[in-house]
Amino acid sequence: MSPLFGRQTKTFIDPSRGDAEASRLRAAVESRDWREVDQAMGGANEPLRREFLVDAVSQQSGDPAWADPWINEQPNSATARLMWGACAAQYAWKVRTGAVPQQVASDRMAGFHQWLVNAGEQLRNAAHLAPGDSAPWVNLLWCAVGLGAPYEEARECWEGAFQRNPETELGAMAYTTYAGPRWNGTAELMWEFVHERVSSLPEGSPLWFLVPHAHLEQWVAERMEPATKDHAARYFHEPQVHAEINEAYLKYLASPSRRPSYLEPQHRELFAGCFYMMGMRDLLRKELELVGPGIQTLPWGFMGPSLDAYKRARESAGLK
Predict the structure, then answer these.
(1) 85-94 burial by CB neighbour count: b if 16+ within 10 A, else e?
(2) Residue 236 domain-assigned?
């Protein structure tokens, strides 16, 4: 359990993923203290750290107006425009709500698209002002997911992130989501990308998380379609699915060569969610004992309200 949580035991959604600096910066955003964010991000030059902090601060964020004074005072600040764009992209999903497209009101869907368009403009400004920064391209990928951008545009965003940070985890997650059948692609396109990424991965690489992530994406997509709904009910009991997820687990979280990742708490939950669906209680218990009380919305949100689904998973593993 992260020291950040102290003695807290009540489960909660934690976009900071147990990271003390990320939690502090989220508090700064809530108090509209852009100068503290500017100072912290100025020292976050390592690509994985920078991508993580941008993501953690922007997750479940409110209206990005907190960054308007920052842009007004520093119009040529790439970081100011990056943070505005990332927060606007995340705010767009709040406007949309988590309902299936057919149940999203037309005004909300229009607002969702407009926020993503505005976010994309600022993110491209940030990419222009800081041509070596991978973070704007990662967040442009999430805009591409929501806007249903053409494949060529999404691929440009992926290559923009990958060329600047070949180890990008958040970029690979976003592009897998874009390419998957739940959003803008197909199972074949998604798995082509995932297998390409993991084919030469060393043991211990955090990027093995793409395997459970992609399986969850495919499972959700199949549940949404009447023609594949029956298969979705037995999806996580397929021998090939078991084999692929177990192999990825052995090569990452269970490996003595495991490399640290700022996203490790989230990766553990992805594997745990799959173990829960697969009925692998021992591995589920092992991973859940390392998780919490701060959790992520996904994968639990795929199974119902996130906190309720997480509670059910813990109970099934014999944990309180």
Answers:
(1) bbbbbbbbbb
(2) yes
Beta carbons of 73 and 106 less than 8 angstroms apart: no
Please state the pTM of the whole predicted model. Answer: 0.92
Give me the chain's average pLDDT, please.
91
Cα 95 to Cα 115: distance, rounded to the nearest angstrom: 9
In a domain, 130, yes or no: no
Give me the residue label for tokens 């934690």.
Answer: 14
Q: For residue 189, which amino acid is it?
A: L
Side chain identity at 50, as an amino acid letter?
A: R
* Same domain as 267, residue 150: yes
Residue 296, judged by CB atoms within 10 A of its CB (0-12, 13-18, 19+), counts as buried
- Indicate the residue among 241, 256, 271 that finishes a domain: 271
pLDDT at 7: 45
Q: Which one, of 60, 144, 149, 54, lies nearest residue 98 by Cα?
A: 60
In the three-class reduction of DSSP (H, G, I as helix; E, B as strand; rest coil), residue 99 is classed as coil
Coil/strand/helix, residue 33: coil
Q: DSSP secondary-structure letter at 185?
A: S
The pLDDT value recorded for residue 1 is 39
pLDDT band at 2 (very low <50, low <70, confident <90, very high): very low
Q: Are strands 12-13 and 294-295 parallel, antiparallel or unpaired?
A: parallel
Biggest CA-to-CA distance, the chain: 58
pLDDT of 62-115, one tens digit each? 789 999 999 999 999 999 999 999 999 999 888 766 656 666 667 777 878 888
pLDDT tier at 3, thresholds 50, 70, 90: very low
**How far is residue 69's CA from residue 168's CA, in Å, rounded to a whole number?**
30
**Start-to-end C-alpha separation, the chain:** 15
